[in-house]
């Protein structure tokens, strides 16, 4: 992951091109793959101030976001008019409003230290924010915090890494399967070349970019 001051500076300068102004359409389309229930908890790593948290909160009993930059948590609750309480925890700070929690902490520290176990994972921005050498560590720690039959919904970008330094980084379907093969099988829900509709990547010199949406496909025992 780029050094944390990099992200802090992006927030300080309000350079938030990664923040979507609406709920992710893939999440809306494929929410049922997460098996949402009111007694379930879903984890959203590197959540920023995404509106996806609001949408998930309409389907799950608890939504847990993790974000290093505290301003993101403050903005999320203020901009959505949700009154939030705060609590210091030994590995960070917890913001809690309604059924949504945002933990301000390093994602690796959170995954090592939290006692929570999660029923679902929604990863739209975490894997593609991590350099290759950190993705293995992230997925290893992550799997330890997911229940055995946890549901997964993930989005990744696949492009020639040499054409753009990232973030976002290129993560292929093969790499994702390698990360999770000991835990579960992944099913490709969508795979689309988005370069024509995403001119910002063309402007950065990318010649081909596929957006892939995957979910967990339970093993047959």
General description of the model:
The protein is an alpha/beta fold and 221 residues long. It has a single domain (4-217), classed as 3-Layer(aba) Sandwich (Rossmann fold), CATH 3.40.50. It has helices spanning 4-12, 25-30, 52-57, 70-79, 107-113, 132-144, 173-180, 199-203, and strands at 41-45, 62-67, 85-89, 92-97, 100-104, 118-123, 146-158, 185-193, 210-217. The model has no long low-confidence stretch (mean pLDDT 90).
Summary keywords:
single chain; 221 residues; alpha/beta; Rossmann fold; nine-stranded mixed beta sheet; 9 strands; globular
Helical amount: 25-40%
Structural class: alpha/beta
Spell out the helices and strands N to C. Answer: HHEHEHEEEHEHEHEHE
So what's the CATH class?
Alpha Beta
Number of strands: 9
End-to-end Cα distance, whole Å, is 36 Å
CATH arch. level architecture:
3-Layer(aba) Sandwich
Briefly characterize the structure.
With 221 residues, this protein is α/β, with parallel strands linked by helices. It has helices spanning 4-12, 25-30, 52-57, 70-79, 107-113, 132-144, 173-180, 199-203; strands at 41-45, 62-67, 85-89, 92-97, 100-104, 118-123, 146-158, 185-193, 210-217.
């Amino acid at each position: 992951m780029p050094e944390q001051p990099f992200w802090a500076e992006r927030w300080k300068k309000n350079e938030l091109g990664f923040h979507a102004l609406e709920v992710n359409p893939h999440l809306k389309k494929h929410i049922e793959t997460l098996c949402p229930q009111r007694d379930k908890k879903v984890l959203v790593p590197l959540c920023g101030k995404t509106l996806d948290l609001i949408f998930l909160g309409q389907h799950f009993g608890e939504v847990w976001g993790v974000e290093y930059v505290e301003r993101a948590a403050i903005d999320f609750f203020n901009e959505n008019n949700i009154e939030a309480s705060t609590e210091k925890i030994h590995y960070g700070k917890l913001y809690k409003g309604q059924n949504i929690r945002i933990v301000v902490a390093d994602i690796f520290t959170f995954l090592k230290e939290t006692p929570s176990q999660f029923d679902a994972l929604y990863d739209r921005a975490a894997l593609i924010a991590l350099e290759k050498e950190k993705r293995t560590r992230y997925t290893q720690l992550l799997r330890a915090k997911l229940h055995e039959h946890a549901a997964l919904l993930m989005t990744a970008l696949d492009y020639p890494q040499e054409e753009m330094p990232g973030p976002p980084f290129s993560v292929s379907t093969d790499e994702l399967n390698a990360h999770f093969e000991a835990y579960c099988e992944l099913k490709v829900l969508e795979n689309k070349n988005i370069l024509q509709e995403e001119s910002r990547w063309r402007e950065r010199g990318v010649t081909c970019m596929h957006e892939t949406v995957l979910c967990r496909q339970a093993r047959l025992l």
